[in-house]
Amino acid sequence: MIKLFGNFMQKYPILILDDKMKRNWRHKEGEIMNETVPEKDFLTKKRMRLFCMYYKPNIGLFILDMSCAFLIACIDLLFPMVTRFALQTYLPNNNYRTFFLVISILFVSYIVRFFMQFVVSYWGHLMGANIEMQMRYDLFNHLQKLSYSFFDRSRTGSIMSRILPELFDITELAHHGPEDLFISCVTMIGASIALFIINPKLALILILAIPILITFTILLRKRMSFASRHLKEGTAEINSEIESCITGVRVSKAFANEGYQATKFQKQSMLYRTARCEFYKVMAVFFSGMEFMISLVSLIAIGAGGYFIMKNEMTLVDLVAFTLYITAFLTPIRKLTNFTELFQSGMSGFDRFIELMKETPDIVNCETPLIPEKFDGNITFSHVNFAYTNASDNESNDTVLSDINLIIPAGKTIAIVGPSGGGKSTLCHLIPRFYEISSGSISIDQTDIRNLDITFLRQNIGIVLQDVFLFATTIMENIRFGRLDASDEEVMEAARQAEMADFIDSLPDGYNTYVGERGLLLSGGQKQRISIARVFLKNPKILILDEATSALDTQTERKIQSALERLSHGRTCIVIAHRLSTIRNADRIVYLSEKGIEEQGTHEELIAISSAYSNLYNLQISC
Fold first, then answer.
1. How far apart are CA 555 and CA 525, in angstroms?
2. Are 184 and 335 in contact (CB under 8 A)?
3. Burial class (CB within 10 angstroms; exposed 0-12, middle 13-18, buried 19+) of 78
4. What is the pTM for the complete model shown?
5. pLDDT (tens digit per residue) in 169-191
6. Can you tell me the distance from the alpha carbon of 394 to that of 211, in angstroms, rounded to the nearest whole number?
7. What CA–CA distance (Å, rounded) separates 611 from 618?
8. Cα 568–537–27 angle (5° rounding)?
9. In the chain, what's the furthest Cα-to-Cα distance?
10. Long-range CB contacts (< 8 A, 24+ apart) of 604-612?
11. What is the pLDDT of residues 247-290, one digit of tens each?
């Protein structure tokens, strides 16, 4: 029966879903969802209003869930009263036919209740899953917009904790919260009315217990909220520690520091255990106290009911019905008790969700961003100053770049050399606006990059880094990341230009070869060539090579160097290198140190004079 009903609901969802909700429920793979709650609303609207906004796309399911929950509550409330009436009216008068007719009607009502319970259990949870999906998408989409500086100061495990386990707690609250609250209120009101109908005096005694239960809940609410949030923070911390230990396991093994890592993790686990113990202690006080008072209410009802029977103010049948209604009355109190835990856990997670959604990107488009029809790649640095911002006080640290003035003509190759910490990589990261300059300006084709559309700007800049990041997928998909709409033939051509086609063809699975986590199944040179193939596929006007071959052996470096030379041909190219032999043919070499740009010129010009570059070059060739 359950299977038939489930198949029917799957086959005919149009009965309960509007068009917008069906799009959310049957989301197509690769289709971009719209944000459920605009990001600006997280800065202005209150918590509960934001929470309720996630119900809007699922309003059909919400109404269905609440309607079925209401019917379930009504059936549960009718049973004791119908039972009381049947026992008092039909059985004493030997009206058995009517009695069993009533029993049959109750049987049918419980069949209806069965279907209603299925709807609540299945479609109610589906609504919660939809809300979880929408929240997770909004959060992930928001994270994609945040600047480098946010990720510089945030731990990966903490972010993952907010995307996965904490959102699940919010989902449970989104489904069970309104449903339990609604059913409990309906049941308590209905049961209270029935209790007053049966015996007003006894009902009044029970109703007076409600303020005591409410007061007890309010007194512990603050402690539960604090303990729940502390537990969420502890979960995020231990997730961060796990992520750090697993990512760095090779370093741990290389230095034989497994014991140290285990001790460090054990300390974090103990802190997490302490947070859980605090949470369980508060919840134990709350639940044990509530159960004691609920049991006391039942005991008082039985005792008072017996007293009224002795006084002939109540019949045994009334006491049976009254006892059934006490159960109906106390069940929602227990639900509300569980709801309190659910609410504290879910809202603690939602508070941390809002906290992350309130993070604003440092770098955004101007009001009217420009997308030029022509993009040549002439780059101009004019009195550029830059310092990294301290996350804790939002103030700048020591200046990294000071009064940088540099012109890079279109189609030319500029090499930037100098000591470590001089700001070479930082200078290059400013061009695609990974960070915002403190003062001055950077222009491309005489247009300030702050006035250019960020997506357009970055689409026209290709970057090959020393530390190549590959996604845990195939070679084909990793290369295609350079241009997502590229055909297989275009991907293969990019691999050929990167001098990787022969290697890929020699693999059993070819372009469908899985590269492993961060490309660990490939060598450094192979990963670097995939990175180069990405940029070939992207075909940008500006190319940045940041220590692209410094981690490779000489033989591999020579193979890749030829691919890089083809890649840089006809583009504005900025090369950062420590091996000065690789940049001798650059159109201009810039020596950058903590003092700023100390000198610039061709290789021959700088060698001919006593310069910092010539000293560094002579030191390298003498080794």
1. 10
2. yes
3. middle
4. 0.72
5. 788 888 888 888 888 888 888 88
6. 48
7. 11
8. 150
9. 122
10. 612/418
11. 666 666 666 677 777 787 788 788 878 888 888 888 788 778 87
